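I am still getting used to backbone structure tokens and would like to learn alongside you. Would you supply a protein for us yourself, any chain you care to pick? Start from the sequence, derive the backbone structure tokens from it, and show both lines together. Go ahead whenever you are ready, and we will take it from there.
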Amino acid sequence: MSNGKTEFDFDTDKYDIRIPADILENTSEKYKKQERMEQSVPESDYSLRAYCSILYLKPRMQIILRGQKVKTQLISKSLAYIERDIYRPSFLNNRNIRITFGYNTKSKEQYGIMMYHRNRLIKAYERVGCQLKANNMGVGVIGVIECNFLKPTHNKQDFDYTDEYRKTIQNLGSKLMDYWKEIRFKRNANDPNTVPVEDTQKRPDQNWVQCDDCLKWRKLPDGIDKLPDKWYCRMNPDPQFRSCEVPEEPEDDDNDHPTYEKTYKQHERIAKMKEERTRRQMEDARKKAEMDRYVNEQNHILQLKHNELKRQLRENVGLFLLTHTGFSSPGVARYQK
């Protein structure tokens, strides 16, 4: 570069290649970061090592960067409180597209949708739906989807802004809201005073590791926190998968239960029915009170008219008697006065 500095940062981490902070913050440079809407910038935006660790949905290779192996992540299985949902786009004849939701176990500041295309990452931490609003809804939630039905741009950093893309983003926002509400409902049902999920220390629901020989992924038992830099199938505590010759464990079968049960919706429906019933009862009580008031007013008016008619009748009878018989009555006397 003209100022004598290298275009990339090779000094901050001897095993990494980074985009310098001044270039990252300067939107006129060609290595500018993905638009983040004032959100915290994930390490994958400026660190090649971090980017390579999530580059593939299911890594099938070893990536060596500056002489050291990149520790790749099986991101769809490294989350907490994992649930799976499906997206059935009409433009794909309602074919099931799997979406995995869970909470980031490393930082609540990094959340959004991880959008892959044919196993390769296209957009990372893309916030959707409630995550775009100025509130705490959806904080810490990550969604993972493989969008083979969308068309990436030529630089593989975005998707073409088509009608299919807009519908997908809108649906992802709706699905993410369902997940966030469901997890909060379940936790609040157990303890109304519980700390929000995003503020708690979390562990991944499952622990997976990749063999350095055969590159197969193996699921490890709970309780294994630390692993050596190099790990092999022969080190697996599970004897069933203690050999590189053994195939990987099959993916979770979603045919029987393609989506999780959204119990919060049933609760909301019941609450809405109760609210509607209460509203109708209050409306009926209001109408009854108005009717009672109207009836009382009409009875009062009728009573006044009745009394007036009685008075007039007495006066007319008195005048009749006085005129035809010469006799008077107390009513006539009062009338004459």
